[in-house]
Write a structure and sequence with these properties.
One of its GO terms (molecular function) is diaminopimelate decarboxylase activity. The chain has 439 residues and is α/β, with parallel strands linked by helices. It is built from 12 helices and 19 strands.
Length: 439
């Protein structure tokens, strides 16, 4: 895997000539994923958390190219649905490297996952509701069980992605020990789990520490009642910078805070990632998604319309809220760079300070008939012209995954690169694909 490399890859660091050639060859909109960068991100996580179990939260990007890279880099897979579990198996993860986190699971999902478990008894199922346990029991499951607590501490880049105190997720932490004690008689109780939310920055470290500390208390309580826990999973959520002025997350600081919170719990000095939780001999688990893939992906989109509106230059492109939902859904900021114009490399791709183009406030809008369909509003950008290609940064996480076909827009293609090799890893959806299901 090599060393971890720099903590963040800014949009300006992607080679414009290469990306323009890809847009030419594969057409737009196009997702590009850099497998080498995925491997570097995994390596950096491993360096910061040398003794922890690290699972990749598959939901951030489920493509086989990413899953295989992550598996080769030694991370396990955390899956949110039966479909993700099946993709993880397809990518070569063995059952002992797959955790399924059930969130209000449809019966169909439980059928499929329990079916997989029958052939792969090392697979772990995480439950966030007592009746999920009943439903698993009804299906004959008596294997490795992890209990998801709702820790009462949330964090993250947007209200919509804070899970830690949201009633939908997990079992209130104060009830977990009793349930775990009862379930330990019937199942192989291997872990406790909690997740604060997504996009945690350095400012959220206090919340993270509090969550870890509560989980440490829980683990000790479970253990004192005969537990036998293998791991304490404190979730994912490690943020990446989206704006040029944002610093990268200091992973070492997160790791230190995590150890310290565990150490405090046990009333001992910090002692590595092998969780020193009093008498609990459990391993710390983390499950980042975004951190692994966000800066390994860009979205390429071509300009089709340029018009002067009252307050801004509106640049119409062929990607929109169906291609990359995050700006419409969370007001998320993604750096945008005009690949066809010169770019000042220390400004993360915008505004253009060195090119010969005028820098103007630009609204980049997609082809969807909704006013939410904008990738950015009134952002200084070197004035794009029709036919030019823009690159959207940090598109590797929750990009293709949240794409959809609203307005009968086929989903984009995706290419994966590693070294000088480029492969089409998801073909472009066609109009025929979209109508195929209709009867
Ligand atoms: N573990 C659990 C239980 C989760 O629910 C999630 C994310 C993760 C791990 C990974 O979180 P990450 O490390 O990627 O932040 N669509 C949103 C993000 C939703 C995340 C949902 N759960 C976005 O685009 O910002």
């Amino acid at each position: 895997v090599g060393d971890g490399g720099p903590a963040v890859r800014r949009l300006a660091e992607w080679d414009a000539t290469d990306l323009l050639a890809l847009a030419e060859e594969y057409d737009t909109p196009l997702y590009v994923i850099d497998r080498d960068r995925v491997a570097e991100n995994c390596a950096r996580l491993r360096e910061a958390f040398p003794d922890a179990d690290i699972s990749y939260a598959v939901k951030a990007h489920t493509g086989q190219a990413v899953l295989r890279t992550v598996r080769e880099a030694g991370l396990d897979a955390e899956c949110a649905s039966a479909g993700e579990v099946e993709r993880a198996f397809e990518a070569g993860f063995t059952g002992n490297r797959i955790r399924y986190t059930a969130v209000n699971p449809p019966g169909r999902d439980l059928d499929r996952v329990v079916g997989r478990w029958q052939a792969n008894p090392e697979l772990t199922i995480t439950v966030g509701a007592a009746d999920t346990v009943d439903r698993l029991r009804d299906r004959g499951f008596d294997g490795r069980l992890c209990v998801r607590a709702n820790p009462g501490v949330g964090a993250g880049h947007h209200e919509k992605v804070r899970t830690g105190a949201n009633a939908k997720f997990g079992i209130p932490i104060e009830r977990v020990a009793d349930l775990a004690e009862a379930w330990a008689a019937e199942f192989d109780l291997v872990g406790v789990h909690a997740h604060a939310g997504s996009g945690i920055s350095g400012d959220d470290l206090t919340a993270h520490r509090e969550l870890v500390s509560r989980m440490g208390d829980l683990a000790r309580e479970v253990e004192s009642r005969g537990g036998g826990l293998e791991f304490v999973d404190v979730g994912g959520g490690f943020g990446v910078p989206y704006r040029s002025e944002e610093p990268p997350l200091d992973l070492d600081a997160v790791a230190a805070a995590t150890r310290e919170a565990l150490g405090d719990v046990a009333g001992r000095s910090p002692a590595g990632c092998q969780a020193e939780l009093g008498n609990v001999d459990a391993t710390l688990s983390i499950e980042p998604g975004r951190y692994v893939v966000a800066d390994a992906g860009v979205l390429l989109t071509r300009v089709n319309t340029v018009k002067e509106a009252r307050d801004a230059t509106v640049v119409g492109v062929d990607a929109g809220m169906t291609t990359l939902l995050r700006p419409a859904m969370y007001g998320a900021y993604h750096a945008i760079r005009n690949l066809s114009a010169g770019v000042d490399s220390d400004t993360d791709g915008e505004p253009n300070a060195t090119g010969d183009r005028e820098t103007v406030p630009v609204t980049v809008a997609g082809p969807i008939c909704e006013s939410a369909d904008v990738l950015c509003e009134e952002r200084p950008l070197s004035r794009p012209e029709r036919g030019e290609v823009l690159a959207v940064g940090n598109a590797g996480a929750y990009g293709y995954e949240m794409s959809n076909t609203y307005n009968t827009r086929p989903r984009p293609a995706e290419v994966a690169r590693s070294g000088t090799t480029v492969r089409l890893v998801r073909r472009r959806e066609t109009a025929a694909d979209l109508t195929e299901l209709e009867r």
